Amino acid sequence: MKHSSVWTLSALGLVIGLVSVSVAIPTFADGSLMGTHTPTPGMEMSHMDHMATPTMPMDGMDMMGDSGDHMAHGMEPIPADGVPAATQDKGGQPLDFRLEEGVKVFELTAQPVRWNILDDVTVTAWTYNGTVPGPMIRVTEGDRVRMVFTNHLPEPTTIHWHGIEVPNAMDGVPGVTQDPVMPGETFTYEFVAKPAGSFMYHSHFEGDTQVSIGLYAPFIIDPAPPENPPDVDVSLMLSEWRVTNGDTYAAMPMMGMEPNYFTINGKAFPLTETINVKVGQRVRLRLMSIGQFVHPMHLHGMAFKIVATDGHPVPEAAQLTKDTVSVAPGERYDIEFVATEPGQWMFHCHILHHTTNDGADPGGLMLVINVTE
Ligand SMILES: [Cu+2]
């Protein structure tokens, strides 16, 4: 049994390897067409050198070995040696910017940290600016934004601006729209933020590994002219982790790699944040699934309306009234409700394995909405 599963995973890896090579080589674009790409002396690698790296041995069996190959990460623990403890405890917080001739300039750094998803469970996370999720970028529709991005990971990476209408060269797809940003390099993304809505940014390099272990964050574009804002406005990013014997693995829907921990904004219940609301207040929850699993999110005690899907407003007459909404990988749903009844109301995933911590209930994708007079 064990042998056959190893063989299956290896064969799958070979197929993935061949597909990525066949996509990458014919479409490799000239880096000079992209944004500014600043190699660190001594760090530069040619395209072909880099793209040759993921080539699988023809028998595909080396996937299980410690070959140092990126593609092998799915089955190996994320290296934890020398990874520092996180110095901040809360992810998804608004990122400060500086104004340079009307451009909002943000600094982002990809870096590994040890991150607590529970008081006694720490994962090795790859993060933007040291938190899971990374910092929230929040701007107004029509703002010109510049992201000065530095890669301090041990592997190449890129950033994709999920759902935002960026120029093609800023789309962050390695081997298609840009060179991968190599360890130690800086790459600058610049675009006009549009349309308004709930978006995300995340790695597009080896996404099954890099996104699963934390390279994601919310990107909110507020409408211009401004809307009538809700009283409470919270973004909730849903994801999964696999932790065994203290090692972190990239969780994925694949035999032997299934998650055993589930997080909202990088924390599992009971460490998830409590959302405090007064009776009569209008609450908007921006649900964002950034992991690899579907999560039917259920609210106790109150129905909600789906006011936006994937960032785009739903016309009032078409807004469904629901108490459960399934959020598939990559999707966003903005839901709104007015808090009518005081109490501690649960909001949780209804795949009930997803409300456990390594099998212990309650845990995972749950939080409390605390409604007071
Ligand atoms: Cu779920």
Question: How would you describe the overall organization of this protein?
Answer:
The chain is mainly β and about 375 residues long. It is built from three helices and 23 strands. Residues about 1-35 and about 40-70 have low confidence and may be disordered. Strands 11, 12, 13, 15, 17, 18, 19 and 21 form an eight-stranded mixed sheet that branches. Strands 1, 2, 3, 4, 6 and 8 form a six-stranded mixed sheet that branches. It binds copper (II) ion. Copper (II) ion binds near residues 295 and 349.
Oligomer: single chain
Order of helices and strands: HEHEEEEEEEEHEEEEEEEEEEEEEE
* Spans where pLDDT lies below 50 across 5 or more residues: 1-36, 38-72
Provide the structure class.
Answer: mainly beta
Key phrases:
373 residues; mainly beta; eight-stranded mixed beta sheet; six-stranded mixed beta sheet; globular; disordered N terminus; binds copper (II) ion
Task: Provide the fold topology.
Elements: H1 2-27, E1 37-38, H2 47-52, E2 98-100, E3 103-118, E4 121-128, E5 137-140, E6 144-151, E7 159-162, E8 186-192, E9 197-203, H3 207-210, E10 216-222, E11 232-244, E12 247-249, E13 261-264, E14 275-278, E15 282-289, E16 295-299, E17 304-309, E18 312-313, E19 321-322, E20 324-327, E21 332-338, E22 343-349, E23 366-372
Parallel strand pairs: 3-6, 5-10, 11-15, 14-23
Antiparallel strand pairs: 1-8, 2-3, 3-4, 6-8, 7-9, 9-10, 11-12, 11-13, 15-21, 16-20, 16-22, 17-18, 17-19, 17-21, 22-23
The chain binds copper (II) ion (CU).
The site of copper (II) ion (CU) has 6 residues, from loops.
